Amino acid sequence: MKYAYAAVVALILLVAGLYTFNDYSYMEKQADTDSSPIEITPIEHATFVLTWGDTVIYNDPVGGAQALEGHPAADIVLVSDIHGDHLSTSTLAAVVGDAVFIVPEAVREQLPEDLASRATVLRNGEAMTERGLRIEATPMYNLPDAENADRHTKGRGNGYLIERDGYRVLIAGDTAGTPELRAVRDIDVAFIPMNLPFTMSVDEAADAVLDFKPQVVIPYHYRSPDGLADVGQFRALVQAGNADIEVRLLAWY
Fold this sequence. Notes:
The chain is built from seven helices and 15 strands. By secondary structure, it is an alpha/beta fold. The chain has one domain: Ribonuclease Z/Hydroxyacylglutathione hydrolase-like (Metallo-beta-lactamase, Chain A). Strands 7-8-9-10-11-12-15 form a seven-stranded mixed beta sheet. The chain has a six-stranded mixed beta sheet with strand order 1-2-3-4-5-6. It has a two-stranded antiparallel ribbon with strand order 13-14. A hairpin with a 2-residue loop joins strand 2 and strand 3. It starts with a helix and ends in a 6-residue tail after the last strand.
């Protein structure tokens, strides 16, 4: 009887908007569907494995070799920025192997020689094709007039837009709701950060997403010194603004 009562109370709180989504036990482990060509396995924060057909992509691998243990070897490794939650030379030394290794210039400058010699530099707006995937480096930065402007300056780091056969995945990187982010179009899956003071607030992230209208949006990179951003509120804001945008909450933490 007490379990039935607890269920009724939880339902009432949920309807009243008082039962938040900060209990992450309900979150999906992966973001894949029968119609999607990709499978996403979150590792932590900004680190994840993206499997696209027979191609395995590691995004911002940190946490040491053990963080990626049990996952297929990478064909492509992407690094977005110089900060320690994106760049770990020890992790890269363990996982790059024979993979195509793509970085911004600022990252290459911080790599030991053996890794730097392996790296392919892409600057904002540049693109390359590897294993049938077009990979474009996109701008990621804090807005110049914001208090956090110096944390991520324009041109230093990369987001990545990956496309194959018209299917488009955007990894936004550490960015604010910039004009460039708001202007992207025809995105099937978008990874969006939200952790002040480093990137943007939940409200700003939702507002940017409502501008560029991806089919699916996945919050990632949402831990800050004050804890985790309220991704449940993010989902509520996005769905209130456009019910056609699917918000998927994955188990990052």
